[in-house]
Each structure stands twice: as structure tokens, then as C-alpha cells.
What we know:
Layout: H1 4-13, H2 25-33, E1 46-54, E2 57-65, E3 71-76, H3 87-95, E4 98-103, H4 122-134, E5 143-148, H5 150-160, E6 168-172, H6 181-191, E7 197-199, H7 209-216, E8 224-226, H8 227-238, E9 251-255, H9 263-273, E10 278-282, H10 294-312
Parallel strand pairs: 3-4, 3-5, 5-6, 6-9, 9-10
Antiparallel strand pairs: 1-2, 2-4, 7-8
Amino acid sequence: MLNAGELQQLREALPPFGDDAFPPAPLVAFCRAYHLDFSAHFPEAAYRGGYIDSGEHRLMLHRWLQPAARGNLFLVHGYFDHSGLFDKLVAYGLSRGYNVLIFDLPGHGLSSGEPAAIDDFGEYALAIEDALAAGGLPANLPLYAIGQSTGCAALTEYARRGSWPFAGVAYLAPLVRPAHWTLVRLGIFLMAPFTEGVARKFNRNTSDGAFLEFVRSDPLQASQVSLRWLVALKRWLGGLSRKELGVGPLLLVQGRQDSTVDWRYNVPFVLDLFAGSEVCYLPRAGHQLANESADIREVYYAALDQWFQRRSLR
Length: 314
């Protein structure tokens, strides 16, 4: 694990994403610390990392290109997450012969912005647009996407703005309403004038104990839930109509032990937005599906394989 000083050195050393130079030593150390160094398992995958500008933000991008790739996979992480916590999904994509692109949302990981804060979910949609535009994924290959939680909300906002270049999409534990939304809204009303955030609790949102220990010691984790983010979520939900978006179906993967989002409300809501979608329920899974235990991940990896294969035939 890198310390705060090493992470600051990394931020200062980050090259522009288009730079062809070998990654600087601090970025190589970051990839090793967060298990994003796939040179041993996928030696032919060429890595590039660096920053791009998106509105007022500077975003961190990571990309792996493989010779003879059969598709491109775009990953969008969740709230409090960052690219360094999505090593398992990156490895999934590489193992299936995909090129992989992932970026840190504004306010997360190595991207700029107040930790875990945003003023408008449109900034997430713009970040997706800019990451895809700058990512350099081969345009002749089908593009697939996987979002986790807030990453799904970001993709939904992106779809609302008329863009959907994906051959196939999967939502993991999508965010519409968080759990206990009525109480959360009351808390926003009562606390927003007096505080900038609420102390974060590290909940047991996965059955993978090693991941839970890792994330608790991760220096890139925010220490509080941002009130700005909650206000932006409330505003986004207020403008989100329960109408079909017209971009086609997706695969929705949902754990039945999820206590982070109101999944009983969210699942039918997402099905209304994306007509013809299918649901894969995981009886033992929590919210952090990208980092669930290996046996649970293998179940939904098989569902992803089938879904993307079916979408590629259309």
C-alpha cells in the first residue's frame, strides 16, 4: 500500500494520457500496490496510464490493449471506489480477450475534485464521454460496459443525454435510491446548512474479508459521505423519469444481501428505463459485487459471458 506522500508524488508525476513514454516509476508502483500490474499474467497487454481534462476536472485513465482483441470493455466504478479497487474486473476483461479502459470518477482515486463530492451528476456523464473519447479503444471492435452502483447512475445519465455506443452493458448493484432513502432525504434537509459531510462507516458490503481489510487501509478512501453529493443525488432523482430511454436492454446483476441500495425499488426502476433487460440475482452477494468472493464472482462472470456473447451476435 502506498502512503499519502507517495500518492502525492504520483499525482505530480502523472503524464498526459496520450504520452507514449514508459509509465513513470510512481505509476508503476501504484499499479503493483493495487494489483493492476498484469505483466505476468497477460504479458502481451500493453498498458498506458495518465490524465485527461474533463470540464473542471482532471481524470485518471488506465488502459490495456491486447493484440487480436475481440472487443473493448469499459468499466465505471462506484461511490468511494477507484480504478485500483477494480483489478478483478480488469482481469476478467483481459482474460476474455478484451481491451480494457477504466477511469477514476471526479472526486475519486487519482482524479481531481473534493473527495467523494460532485455538484451535478451531469459531471459524471461528461467524464464518461471524455474518457471514451480519449481512451483510444479500437473503433472497429464492439464496445461493452460494466458499471458498479454509482457507476451505473453515471451511465444512466450518459444515456439520458443521447449517447449509447455500447454493444452490451451490465449493471452491478445499480444505484437509483440508496437504502433508507426517506431518512437520507430528511438528513439532507436537517444537516446541509450546518455540515459538509457525514462520517463514513465501512460496512461489510462483501463476503471477501481480505478486500474489506484492504479498503479500510486504503489512503485513497474518503472519510465522509459528501452532503454535496447527496444533494446532487436528490436533484438527479427528482429529474429522472421512469420512462424507457430507448437505448436497448442490459444485464442487471443484484445481490439479495445488499443493504447499501434500495434494490427492491431500484431493480424494477432500471427495468423500466432499459426495456428488455434481464436480471441475475445472487442470493448470498452484498453490494460490492466487483469485489465479492471468488465463488460469487464466477457465477455472475458466467452471466456476463453469456450476455455479451448474445449481444455480439445482434
